[in-house]
Amino acid sequence: MAVDGLLSVESHFDPQQTLERLEAEVKAKGLTVFARLDHAAGAAGVGMALRPTTVLVFGNPKGGTPLMQASQLVGIELPLRVLVWQDAAGKTWLSCVDPANLAKRYALPPETATAVGNLAAALKALTATAAGG
Protein backbone atom coordinates (compact mmCIF):
# COMPACT_ATOMS: atom_id res chain seq x y z
CA MET A 1 0.00 0.00 0.00
CA ALA A 2 1.80 3.11 -1.19
CA VAL A 3 0.68 6.60 -0.20
CA ASP A 4 3.19 9.45 -0.26
CA GLY A 5 4.46 10.26 3.22
CA LEU A 6 3.03 7.13 4.84
CA LEU A 7 4.65 3.84 5.76
CA SER A 8 2.45 0.74 5.49
CA VAL A 9 3.12 -2.84 6.50
CA GLU A 10 0.88 -5.81 5.74
CA SER A 11 0.01 -7.88 8.80
CA HIS A 12 -0.14 -11.67 9.02
CA PHE A 13 -2.96 -11.31 11.54
CA ASP A 14 -6.54 -10.06 11.53
CA PRO A 15 -7.18 -6.44 12.57
CA GLN A 16 -8.03 -7.21 16.22
CA GLN A 17 -4.99 -9.45 16.72
CA THR A 18 -2.77 -6.91 14.99
CA LEU A 19 -4.04 -4.11 17.21
CA GLU A 20 -3.56 -6.22 20.35
CA ARG A 21 -0.02 -7.13 19.28
CA LEU A 22 0.79 -3.50 18.52
CA GLU A 23 -0.53 -2.26 21.86
CA ALA A 24 1.33 -5.00 23.75
CA GLU A 25 4.59 -4.12 21.98
CA VAL A 26 4.10 -0.39 22.59
CA LYS A 27 3.62 -1.05 26.31
CA ALA A 28 6.55 -3.51 26.40
CA LYS A 29 8.79 -0.74 25.05
CA GLY A 30 7.75 1.54 27.91
CA LEU A 31 5.67 3.89 25.76
CA THR A 32 2.37 5.35 26.90
CA VAL A 33 -0.86 4.46 25.10
CA PHE A 34 -2.97 7.62 25.09
CA ALA A 35 -5.97 6.49 23.07
CA ARG A 36 -7.56 3.92 20.82
CA LEU A 37 -9.82 5.48 18.21
CA ASP A 38 -12.20 2.92 16.71
CA HIS A 39 -13.55 4.52 13.55
CA ALA A 40 -15.59 1.41 12.62
CA ALA A 41 -17.43 1.58 15.96
CA GLY A 42 -18.07 5.28 15.38
CA ALA A 43 -19.49 4.54 11.95
CA ALA A 44 -21.69 1.77 13.36
CA GLY A 45 -22.98 4.22 15.95
CA VAL A 46 -24.51 6.32 13.17
CA GLY A 47 -25.76 3.36 11.16
CA MET A 48 -22.91 3.23 8.67
CA ALA A 49 -20.58 0.38 7.78
CA LEU A 50 -16.79 0.64 7.82
CA ARG A 51 -14.24 -2.15 7.69
CA PRO A 52 -12.03 -2.41 10.79
CA THR A 53 -10.21 0.93 11.11
CA THR A 54 -8.57 1.78 14.44
CA VAL A 55 -5.90 4.32 15.37
CA LEU A 56 -3.59 3.64 18.31
CA VAL A 57 -2.13 6.87 19.75
CA PHE A 58 1.04 6.46 21.80
CA GLY A 59 4.39 7.99 22.59
CA ASN A 60 6.98 9.29 24.99
CA PRO A 61 7.95 12.95 25.49
CA LYS A 62 11.63 12.03 25.14
CA GLY A 63 11.01 11.14 21.50
CA GLY A 64 8.78 13.96 20.39
CA THR A 65 9.93 16.93 22.43
CA PRO A 66 13.16 17.52 20.45
CA LEU A 67 11.09 17.80 17.28
CA MET A 68 8.65 20.23 18.87
CA GLN A 69 11.55 22.26 20.25
CA ALA A 70 12.69 22.70 16.65
CA SER A 71 9.17 23.41 15.35
CA GLN A 72 6.18 23.49 17.66
CA LEU A 73 3.92 22.85 14.68
CA VAL A 74 5.09 19.22 14.72
CA GLY A 75 2.87 18.93 17.80
CA ILE A 76 -0.10 18.50 15.46
CA GLU A 77 1.48 15.20 14.37
CA LEU A 78 2.37 13.92 17.84
CA PRO A 79 2.00 11.72 19.77
CA LEU A 80 2.66 8.95 17.29
CA ARG A 81 -0.27 7.21 15.65
CA VAL A 82 -0.57 3.90 13.86
CA LEU A 83 -3.68 3.03 11.88
CA VAL A 84 -4.68 -0.65 11.86
CA TRP A 85 -7.10 -1.26 9.02
CA GLN A 86 -8.54 -3.86 6.72
CA ASP A 87 -8.69 -3.34 2.96
CA ALA A 88 -11.43 -4.47 0.57
CA ALA A 89 -9.56 -7.73 -0.09
CA GLY A 90 -9.57 -8.57 3.64
CA LYS A 91 -5.86 -7.85 4.17
CA THR A 92 -4.83 -6.14 7.40
CA TRP A 93 -2.42 -3.21 7.31
CA LEU A 94 -0.57 -0.97 9.75
CA SER A 95 0.04 2.56 8.46
CA CYS A 96 1.76 5.57 9.97
CA VAL A 97 3.28 8.89 8.98
CA ASP A 98 6.91 8.53 7.92
CA PRO A 99 9.04 10.57 10.36
CA ALA A 100 11.32 11.55 7.46
CA ASN A 101 8.26 13.14 5.87
CA LEU A 102 7.66 15.11 9.08
CA ALA A 103 11.22 16.37 9.01
CA LYS A 104 10.72 17.57 5.45
CA ARG A 105 7.22 19.01 5.96
CA TYR A 106 8.27 21.07 8.99
CA ALA A 107 11.77 21.90 7.70
CA LEU A 108 13.36 20.44 10.81
CA PRO A 109 17.03 21.36 11.21
CA PRO A 110 19.83 18.80 10.81
CA GLU A 111 20.33 18.54 14.58
CA THR A 112 16.96 16.75 14.83
CA ALA A 113 18.12 13.95 12.51
CA THR A 114 18.88 11.61 15.42
CA ALA A 115 15.44 12.12 16.97
CA VAL A 116 13.74 11.63 13.58
CA GLY A 117 15.80 8.49 12.99
CA ASN A 118 14.91 7.14 16.42
CA LEU A 119 11.19 7.67 15.78
CA ALA A 120 11.48 6.00 12.38
CA ALA A 121 13.32 3.00 13.84
CA ALA A 122 10.80 2.67 16.66
CA LEU A 123 7.83 2.76 14.29
CA LYS A 124 9.48 0.24 11.97
CA ALA A 125 10.18 -2.17 14.83
CA LEU A 126 6.75 -1.77 16.43
CA THR A 127 4.84 -2.29 13.19
CA ALA A 128 7.02 -5.21 12.10
CA THR A 129 6.49 -6.99 15.41
CA ALA A 130 2.74 -6.33 15.39
CA ALA A 131 2.50 -7.56 11.80
CA GLY A 132 4.42 -10.73 12.58
CA GLY A 133 7.20 -9.82 10.16
SSE ordering: EHEHEHEEHH
| Architecture per CATH nomenclature, i.e. the level-2 architecture | 2-Layer Sandwich
Task: Look at the structure and give the mean pLDDT.
Answer: 96
Estimated radius of gyration: 15 Å
Q: What do we call the CATH homologous superfamily?
A: TT1751-like domain
Distance between the termini: 16 Å
Strand proportion, as a percent range, falls in 15-25%
Largest sheet composition: 5 strands, antiparallel
Kindly give the count of domains.
1
Structural class, from helix and strand content? alpha+beta
The largest beta-sheet arranges its strands as: 1-5-4-3-2
Give the C-level CATH assignment: Alpha Beta
Helix content: 40-55%
The number of helices is 5
Tell me how many strands there are.
5
CATH topology: TATA-Binding Protein
Word description of this protein:
The structure is a single chain. This protein has helices at residues 15-28, 39-45, 61-70, 99-105, 113-131, and strands at residues 6-10, 32-38, 53-59, 80-86, 92-97. The protein is of the alpha+beta class and 133 residues long. The protein has a single domain, classed as 2-Layer Sandwich (TATA-Binding Protein). It has a five-stranded antiparallel beta sheet with strand order 1-5-4-3-2. The radius of gyration is 15 Å and the shape is globular. The chain starts with 5 loop residues before the first strand and ends with a helix.
